[in-house]
Amino acid sequence: MPTPGTMSCDGNTTTLSGFVYDPADKNPLYNISVYVPDPMSPLPDLDTVPVACGCAQLLPQKVLAIGAPTDAKGHFEIPCVPAGTVSVVVQTGKWRRKYDNITVLPNQANMAPRLRLPANSAEGSLPNIAISTGGSDSFECLPLRLGVSASEYVAGSAPGGHIHIYTGHNGAQPAQGSVESYQSLWDTQKHLNEHDVVILSCEGQETTGGGMAAPRLNTASQTLLMNYANAGGRVFASHYQYAWFNTGPFASGANALARWTPGTQNINDMQSFPAEISTTLKGGAAFPEGAALAQWLGGVGALTNNQLPVWFARNNVQALLEPPSTEWIHLAASVKEAPSSTQYFSVDTPVGAKDVCGRVVYSDLHVSGGPGTNAPGVPPDYPNSAAGAGAGGASGTGGAPGAAGGFGFPGGPATRGGTVPGECAQHPLTPQEEALEFMLFDLSSCLVPIGEEPPVVIR
Q1: Could you tell me what percentage of the chain is helix, strand and coil, using 3-state DSSP and rounding each to the nearest 5?
Q2: Whether residues 159 and 207 fall in one domain
Q3: Structural domain boundaries, residue 436
Q4: Neighbours of 49 (CB within 10 A)
Q5: Which residues, in sequence order, are CB contacts of 301 under 8 Å at separation 6+?
Q6: Residue 186 near residue 225, CB atoms below 8 Å
Q7: What is the pLDDT of residues 208-252, one digit of tens each?
Q8: Each residue of 411-426: pLDDT tens digit?
Q9: Which residues on adjacent β-strands are paired with residue 154?
Q10: Shortest CA distance to 133 belongs to which of 158, 162, 156, 150?
């Protein structure tokens, strides 16, 4: 299909516009495709589509009308819409929801009803997201606050849901019981490849995926993760999960992503630090996704004086290697403890390839300070967890956790996650959680290579 704006509508001036929101129906979403499907071109069964390069297998062969993906305000407009009663599909990657019986009046501008991505499989399709939990973050609770239904949470690769919980060191476990990450997620290529997105939460120590006696990462495990990403998989790694990248294949030759400073690299958990969004690439080239992130964060009210306030900041990226990596968020130069420290970066995979398939991201941002620990005024996840090291291990500082948010203290017993999703706190997204919301939907979308605008991907 031609790019919108260049296609001929043959005199049809009918348009359909509107906005797309997250499953919670709160925040608008960027880079969401909205189209009128062709009834003769069935929608693929996304649950049967394996991890692969590209998006052609996720989309129908033909549509009746489509516009450019949503902008940073979540807005879309579809030209050349057929008049009458139509269906409308909203989709990004394997997130997909279909709305039927929308009335379109001919040769005028029509407004669509309020649209959102599905909260559960009864409403539409969701990607299979594996989350390895850890004792120094609670990323597994974020999808719940984004509106994903608790019924989508399952233990390990069990059927019946799309949020697959694997337990890492001191991490939360589902009500059905623990499924250990190192035994059932990153132990084989088959297990990794069962998921569209793999999220590796900070464990408070270099990754083992299990208890202190569990085997630490080795080159074989790191190679499995690289193979997964090279085949089209998406990886999110938080803080101590740098252990996937500071040795092994992601640290070798042209595949090296950064120079690393290991350990907790705690800055000061008693305060937030201002961070800035990268809106251009190194050298000054355009970075459309970074610019969209900055505009989107401003639109949802996450910025203070055009900066993102970050709690539990870390400083593990000694120097980012650009290319192949791309920085999205860094601390402000005014942060004297870690000026301009990279907080979030990505690399498209295979590294250096002309045609990329997957994406790996690393984040020193945390959803929280870990079980029982959060920023002041923010209810913590797993509030009954043992007081402990806070985000990033035994170097946390401050007082005991409380219902209104608190900090770990040095020398205390290790924090342990509780039961997910039942003990996750429900509260409005914090500014850094809003940044991570943008990143999660970006990570699970059809890949937009760095420096490019989101394309119209349906023929």
Answers
A1: 15, 25, 60
A2: yes
A3: 127-368+425-443
A4: 14
A5: none
A6: yes
A7: 655 556 667 889 999 999 999 999 999 999 999 999 999 999 999
A8: 234 568 899 999 999 9
A9: 164
A10: 156
